[in-house]
Amino acid sequence: MSAEMARKVLQIIDDAAGQQPSGIEFELAYQARVAIDRIKFAIEHIERFAPRTPQMREATLQLLDALTRLESADRKFQRRLQAWSGCRNNHPPDEELGVGATHGPKGDPV
Fold first, then answer.
1. Which of 10, 31, 82, 100 has the fewest CB atoms inside 10 Å of its own CB, making it the most exposed?
2. b/e per residue, 75-108, with b = 16+ CB within 10 A?
3. Residue 68 backbone class (left: φ over 0; alpha: ψ -120 to 50; beta: rest)
4. Biggest CA pair distance of the chain
5. DSSP for 78-110?
6. Between the ranges 13-17, 79-83, 88-92, where is the mean pLDDT highest?
7. What is the model's pTM?
8. Taking all residues of the chain, what is their mean pLDDT, rounded to a whole number?
9. Are 43 and 64 in contact (CB under 8 A)?
């Protein structure tokens, strides 16, 4: 099964379930955040202290790829959590209100 097909199947399942993210999803999201912070730290130290060799450049590129993947997964989890919170509270997710919004579409406080 291709990655795109797997994503579509998972999206269909997620849409059908429409449930609160599970405990394991929260744990994975937390662990992803920890890994993101540690990868950023490693990249900074490689760039600052490591010799500039092709091997170190490749290691940095691998870390950047891992960082990008984890950040993408984290954004997906955050969108799912916002959508669930919006449905649960009977108002649209914050992203639909705009960044830093303090009032809803009808002027009600958020």
1. 100
2. eebeebbebeebeeeebebeeebeeeeeeeeeee
3. alpha
4. 58
5. HHHHHHHHHHHTTS--HHHH-TT--B-TTS-B-
6. 79-83
7. 0.58
8. 80
9. yes
Helix (H) or strand (E) holding 76: helix 54-88
Answer yes or no: is pLDDT of 78 > 80. yes
CA angle 2-17-4, nearest 5°? 15
Using left for φ > 0, alpha for ψ between -120 and 50, and beta otherwise, residue 96 falls in alpha
Exposure on the CB side of residue 32, measured as CA atoms within 13 A: 19
The whole-angstrom separation of Cα 72 and Cα 66 is: 10
